[in-house]
Every structure is written in structure tokens, then in C-alpha cells.
């Protein structure tokens, strides 16, 4: 009886010290997070960017290519199941020969069966001026036939670390015969 209670006590002590270690570990990492957040909040700013996205799917040197599809993609009115890999130039003005400011690299896929709804998973990588080497990650639904649509900015790197915000896309030019498009992007981020 006495032996059993010593063992029980020992088990209890070990359990209590485990609980103490775990809760101390949690509060200390929380403290660290708050400090980082406070430091970050102090210098947080809002940046607005505007550029033009050139998606060329036709011709000998397309910037966006279909890399996968479902069996019935070509029978679907929305090309449901098509997955496209893009490395699209981003320029300062709608003119494709205007100054290159970056590239949109990533995937978009047809995710809507009844209405065109693209799923965009893209990095906008900048190559000019103060944003050179920094990037913004966009993830969201793009109802590309609507004149204006909104996608979420879910992160960034470099100048745009911890970015959050939104991207407004507006088609500037679209060729229904080839599918080529020029899209104006206005991005607002807090970072
Ligand atoms: C896709 O098509 C191929 C060839 O027509 C067929 O063998 C295959 O079973 C189909 N797969 C599905 C998932 O329908
Ligand atoms: C951008 O950064 C790269 C790598 O650091 C550098 O080679 C390039 O010259 C820079 N471009 C501009 C326009 O500053
Ligand atoms: C994009 O930004 C420009 C310049 O600020 C503005 O004129 C235009 O209306 C904006 N476009 C959209 C769709 O919000």
C-alpha cells in the first residue's frame, strides 16, 4: 500500500513537471511572437502597385502552356480540369514593349464546371527598382470573363515579407480567337 502510493506520487510529480514544462514552453514562444508582431506593426506600411500582365497562349513562343488536363477538358465549355503553367511578363504600361517590371510565375487552372473560374496560384516576382528581388504571392478565384475580379494576396518575400492584401484584375485586351490577354493588375498590400 505504502509502496504503491510512493509510485503514484512519483508519477504525479513527473506528470506535473511535464505540464509545467509544456505550458512554460508555450508562453515563452507566445511572448516571442508578440514581440515580433509589435516590432513589425510599428513599421508596417501600405503599398499600391500597378502593372500589366501579358498572357500569351498562342504562337510559337507562348508564355503560358497547358501542362495537364482531364479526359473531358476539351469537351467542357469552361475547359474544366486544364492546368496551365505561366511565366508571363509584367510591364509598366499595356504596351508589351514597355518597361519590364517583373514576371508572373505559377499555375492557373480551370476550376469551374459551369462558369469560367480559374484558380490562380502565382508569384509576382519583381525585377525593377526598390522591389527588385521581392515577390508577392497571389492565391484565389479569377472569374476571368468578368471585367473586374479580386484575388487574395497571401504573402510575400523581400520588401513584401508578411504581406497581406488584395489584387484587383481588369482585362485590358482579350483576343477570343487565340485566348491571349493583357490584364491590368492593381495590388494593395500591407507589409
Ligand atoms: C480517359 O480516357 C482514356 C482513353 O480514352 C481511358 O482509357 C480512360 O479510362 C479514361 N479515364 C477516365 C478517368 O475516364
Ligand atoms: C536586380 O537584382 C539583380 C540581382 O541582385 C541584379 O543582377 C539586377 O541588375 C537588378 N536589376 C535592376 C534593374 O536593378
Ligand atoms: C487601378 O488603379 C488605377 C490607378 O490608381 C485606377 O485608375 C484604376 O481605376 C484602378 N483599376 C481598378 C479596376 O480598380
TrEMBL record:
Residues 1-25 form the signal peptide. GO terms for biological process: phenylpropanoid biosynthetic process. Homodimer. Coiled coil: none annotated. This is Dirigent protein. It is found in: Secreted, Extracellular space, Apoplast. Dirigent proteins impart stereoselectivity on the phenoxy radical-coupling reaction, yielding optically active lignans from two molecules of coniferyl alcohol in the biosynthesis of lignans, flavonolignans, and alkaloids and thus plays a central role in plant secondary metabolism. GO terms for cellular component: apoplast. Keywords: Apoplast, Secreted, Signal. Belongs to the plant dirigent protein family. Gene3D superfamilies: Allene oxide cyclase-like. InterPro entries: Allene_oxi_cyc_Dirigent, Dirigent.
